[in-house]
Design a protein that fits this description.
By secondary structure, the protein is mainly α. Helix content is 75%, strand content 0%. The protein has one domain (67-249, 293-504): Growth Hormone, Chain: A (Up-down Bundle). It is built from 25 helices and no strands.
């Protein structure tokens, strides 16, 4: 077992408390700036979003639709997304941990190839968590599944802490990956069902915001603690999540209504929206879904649904191109990548800068997603990512061919900084937002589970093949391949991804099934 003691550098607790306060203030400023300056709102949007029952529409014009109070919806969504925060620590753990494990004084001896397995096995684990979690959430409810997930998370960190050889790490990463897959299949779905459509995109974006906060958390503490303390400080997060889920989260009103628990569904909606909000419209929409759809649809029924097939194609494309952009390669190997650049900025500092940028721009995306729309952010994101990865690939190609790159020593940090920022603005959070919006309730659990399985296979292939590409072709070609994938992802969004901004879940289903707007507005009788 590893010695549990702090390193001499671990005397900076007050620094992180100060950093947290500064980040909180920065978020408040960004929210005010985006709402009041960019969109010229005449009142503070933070106060509007938390307390108003008549929020403006996403384009800045007053909405004619009834709006509930937002505070409880924010609290519920943020409590649910502590799980994604824990996911962020799992993703980023390899960045500081692998250099420790590969060092000469490590008590666990691993090879670079074994290190690539440690990084990539979470994607295999995600396969075993996605479909069971989604189907179980349809059968017993969203809350019980989410409440269970912290327990295997804690187990994975205990395995890492007590690890004696690489097999402990393999099992730990598989278990953590199972939780990751289950969270991907359940938390966005849950938030999409408890949120009003006017803030649904923003609240679903908080899934990715908290993932990036978890990544920044590990990047920030990793350089200052040893292996054992890193596991401890990551392992306390699932404990906090477990407590919040039990104390704060209600069951999804969509699940309750579909289960025949109408009074409980009404009570949850009143609790989330406020006593003065008229919930009759939402109840009518839930009843319409119940009458038109069969609950807990089977695979044979799902493949006959045009809307579900198109939703699955869209979601899989988004998650597939997300993985092929190389984002997890960068997150898993940030310190190693920066060490190979020869930059004047230290790898540890560069990683922290990247983590901070990721948090800031993911939060910015959460404020823009219901105003600018999903498609425009995705298009900006992937096109700029392609340019950044192309620049980085060209830099590495020159470096590998003996060209003096000292004049361009800041290119890697700038390229990766802009790459991470634009990824966080669009392709990071928005696929998670849209996966909670695209599927109808009776197929949602199964469909999201299948998409997560296929996306996990793509992610595993990308992360595991990174070391092979590196050994055979170098970093220049490898990052050039990632750039090409971003170009294809941009074209995919441009021609095949629908806009879901400011649309109800039923309106999205109607559009995916090919119904015209005139048909969507007519009731069953055609009136």
């Amino acid at each position: 077992m590893h010695s549990v003691k702090m390193t001499p550098k671990m005397g900076f607790g007050h620094v992180y408390l100060t950093l947290a306060a500064c980040m909180s203030s920065l978020f408040q400023f960004l929210r005010w700036f985006i709402g009041s300056v960019i969109f010229a709102h005449n009142r503070n949007p933070l106060l509007l979003s938390l307390t108003s029952s008549n929020k403006s529409a996403s384009d800045g014009t007053p909405s004619n639709e009834p709006q509930g109070k937002k505070f409880r919806q924010y609290v519920t969504a943020l409590s649910a997304t502590v799980g994604p925060f824990a996911v962020g620590t799992v993703l980023a753990w390899t960045s500081p941990a692998l250099p420790m494990l590969l060092s000469a004084d490590s008590t666990i001896k691993i090879t670079p190839d074994q290190g690539s397995w440690v990084g990539s096995l979470i994607a295999i684990g995600a396969i075993f968590g996605s479909i069971p979690a989604g189907k179980t959430a349809d059968l017993i409810g969203r809350k019980p599944v989410i409440a269970f997930l912290p327990l295997p998370f804690i187990t994975s960190w205990l395995l890492i802490y007590f690890a004696k050889d690489v097999w402990y790490l393999y099992v730990a990463r598989l278990v953590a990956g199972t939780c990751l897959g289950a969270i991907t299949a359940t938390v966005p779905m849950y938030i999409g069902e408890i949120a009003e459509k006017s803030i649904r995109g923003e609240l679903c974006s908080y899934v990715q915001v908290n993932v990036t906060l978890g990544i920044l958390y590990v990047y920030s503490i990793g350089p200052f603690v040893n292996y054992a303390w890193l596991a401890i400080m990551c392992g306390i997060l699932p404990v906090i999540w477990f407590i919040l889920v039990l104390l704060v989260l209600p069951e999804s009103p969509t699940y309750l209504w579909r289960s025949g628990k109408n009074k409980e569904a009404e009570d949850v909606l009143v609790m989330l929206r406020g006593k003065d909000y008229d919930i009759s419209g939402e109840l009518q929409a839930l009843q319409k879904e119940l009458e038109e759809k069969k609950p807990n649809g089977k695979l044979k029924d799902m493949v006959k649904s045009k809307a579900t097939l198109r939703a699955a194609f869209t979601a899989l494309g988004l998650f597939g191109f997300l993985s092929c952009s190389g984002i997890n390669v960068v997150i898993f190997n940030a310190q190693t990548i920066f060490s190979s650049t020869g930059s004047i900025v230290s790898p540890k500092t560069s990683s922290i800068v990247i983590g901070i940028l990721q948090v800031i721009f993911t939060f910015t995306s959460s404020q823009l997603v219901d105003r600018a729309g999903r498609r425009v952010l995705l298009l900006i994101s992937d096109s700029v990512m392609a340019v950044c990865l192309g620049s980085l690939g060209f830099y590495f190609w020159q470096l590998e061919h003996g060209v003096d790159t000292s004049v361009f020593s800041l290119v890697p940090l700038i390229s990766l900084g802009v790459y991470i920022s634009t990824f966080s603005l669009g392709f990071g959070p928005i696929p998670g937002v849209m996966v909670g919006e695209l599927f109808s309730p009776e197929f949602k659990g199964l469909a999201i589970g299948i998409v997560c399985v296929l996306a996990s296979l793509i992610e595993f292939s990308v992360v595991k093949s990174y070391q092979t590409l590196l050994d055979n072709y170098g970093r220049g070609v490898t990052f050039g391949v990632f750039a090409g994938c971003c170009v294809m992802g941009t074209l995919f969004v441009l021609f095949l991804v629908p806009e879901t901004k400011n649309k109800s879940l039923q309106e999205i289903q109607d559009e995916l099934s090919g119904k015209k707007k005139s048909e969507q507005k007519q009731g069953p009788s055609g009136s």
